[in-house]
Design a protein that fits this description.
mainly alpha, 62% helix, 8 helices, homotetramer
């Protein structure tokens, strides 16, 4: 189990700040084409990954933390602490955006601000789309941790960012492309709009559990070639 | 001839999954500007290349497998197995998209769902456009296999992805930019719309045969400087 | 204190030229979607960073020079000289754009040419948005100077450029996304329109001061792992 | 003087093919937003640079060949042969596009097909814009040849491509962003529309001559730190 160290504290702080930044600015994006929407979220993921991958690995998304735990890139306890930080960070980030742009009086109107809604009929199609889109993000991360990429990961933030752009564009018409449970959870709670919330919370997590196992036991034949990711175990004192 | 090994099985599985993912999500993209269309397909190629290049080389497109065989980056039999997997993968991927978004009743309506159509007059202009666009993709891959790029291929997924974005934009108005025989084959079969299907199946293959020979015997003067691509021969036991 | 050397003179010249180029071409961008606006500024930052990072570090923005001084990537006096050059460069760049496209008679009409205006109500929301957007840019630069990125900084211009694209898109609807005091200062002076100018001049500087301290003392635990940036101290004779 | 060798022949062929490809597909791009226009040309420059930089350096543009000669990255005679190939290549490329999409009968109608026109008033403003935009491209190339980038030039095609995207967006409203004399020359000849052709032929060449001298004697203090570019002198037998 990870000792409560200063190093770990910094890494958790990084996850909190990164989640806050992405959720706040992402929800601040107003109205525009799906292309502008996609490049906003993609650009924010580039910033977050670039600034914090050195220190915490820049998971930002609980799905990535789950995948990291399965691939043993991060310790299980650390992973849960990361997810807690992401939960808190995205809550604060959403709150700032909500107070500023979402409503005139806090907790007043039900504006559906920044809520991801299912716009495809029937609803279960959004479920499949979310599974695949989150899967794409998770697979992109899995490959970035592979030992053949250990040395050369400088452009990883660019790649993840453009993957998010592409995935956001595909899902924009069906499910608003969540890919992150917390990104949809807070807007849903504040708007008291829980329609299909199980899709946005559930499917990304299912993808985040299934795909790393497939990666580890099918693609890598269980050989555990996972690189020690930046900011991960390497900096932990107990190793 | 390649032995039927576990390694080969994984590589074939990767091609199948990558083709399924790109075809499913690409066909799931609904309506939007040609720019959003281009970034969707480009982003998916980035995901596929990023996730699977380590293991199988991430051909995704049979044209790339043909070019790989000619450049001896992959064995001839493996190449044909790759193409078989791409055929099956894109069939499954298209089927999922078709059931979800293409029609209410399977095999019911003739909706031209995800079909690439020739919108330029006369039709043979689309043929020339497809030849050049596929040629651009094939040349980009040829250069990514060159030995001077053997060490530094981390951003190859980004480059291929943006090449697909640019090529898709150019062809969008004339031929919907196929560049991959299987990408057009399945939508044509399910819609029973075989207009100009020979353009989409034929021209990419012609480009995929001619350009690697030009690359090998003209540009490289027949010196076979082709790097052993990631996931290719290196992992084969008979070497 | 830095000697007035030929090396320093060249670095200062680079900052002047880079600021001139970005301000002139950025302000020359006419009308278009927020996406085209974002890619114009982002593309210019790529050019500037690519061309001048080798020699001067390509700060372009005084916020980056302030962050550099705090992280000891550059000497304090050099930093102030950099900022002076940026001020002069963006003045010249703006003047060229203004004479060409901003007015028929210089100093004649009050056209609000290239002015960043607050379009969100109330005004203090723009202040928060500018703080976070500038913060994203500053953090991206901080990470590019970290020693783990010392070897591999070739794609830094791409990453910074796409961060600017994403940030510009987010802020486009609220504050026109300044992120650089001088970028807004000169248009305001020439149009004699000083509405909310304290936001555009003040907040980026606040972000530029707070975030590097957080980076240094919180993230890096005060260990000064800052790499000697390209074109920075390394070339100074007194070291 | 360069011997007429097989190596040189291949390099010249590469320049011819690259210019043909970019001019043909660029002119084939039909109608669309300036953003789609910019990403089409940018994507084509990525393909061309990616595929041919290994062999010939992928100048594509005579301005780059002029800059290469001044920086001694390529021999003077080779540079002129490169330019001849670019002239022939873009002529063939334009001709294919013109026959296919520009007119029904060759040399028949004056359609202004693919012509770059000055849309800003007065005309000399386009001249200044073209100077700066071409200058940005030339400076980006100069930096890619600097010895500090000799090892790490894998993402150079991406960077040049996005620089072209940004520059094209800025100039789209004023001068259609030529940046390459031959790109505008052939459309002008075929349409017999020579309005302002001196801007498109002249200014890029002026920028291509002035900026490399500034780079060499001002930025680098005349120290000739230019790296031997890929495909350049290294492969020449007389060295």
């Amino acid at each position: 189990m990870a000792k409560w160290s200063k190093q770990l504290f910094i890494r958790l702080l990084c996850e909190l700040i990164a989640s806050l930044l992405v959720q706040f600015l992402g929800c601040s994006f107003g109205q525009g084409s799906s292309l502008a929407y996609a490049f906003s979220w993609g650009g924010l993921i580039i910033v977050g990954t670039m600034a914090f991958r050195i220190i915490s690995g820049a998971h930002i998304n609980p799905c990535i933390s789950i995948a990291s735990m399965i691939l043993k890139n991060i310790k299980v306890l650390d992973g849960f602490l990361y997810m807690l930080m992401q939960l808190v960070g995205s809550a604060i980030g959403f709150l700032i955006a909500y107070v500023m742009f979402g409503s005139n009086t806090l907790f007043g109107a039900n504006t559906n601000y920044c809520v991801t809604t299912v716009t495809v009929d029937p609803w279960w199609k959004a479920l499949i789309i979310e599974f695949y889109l989150t899967g794409a993000w998770v697979l992109a991360f899995c490959s970035s941790w592979h030992e053949s990429n250990q040395e050369l990961n400088e452009s990883v933030s660019l790649k993840i960012g453009l993957v998010v752009v592409g995935a956001t564009l595909v899902g924009a018409q069906y499910s608003h492309t969540c890919m992150n449970p917390f990104r949809s959870l807070w807007p849903a709670i504040f708007s008291m709009n829980f329609d299909h919330i199980y899709i946005y919370v559930g499917m990304p997590i299912v993808a985040a559990i299934l795909l790393p196992f497939a990666w580890l036991y099918i693609y890598l034949l269980g050989e555990e070639e996972t690189a020690k990711g930046p900011g991960a175990e390497v900096k932990n004192e107990e190793e």
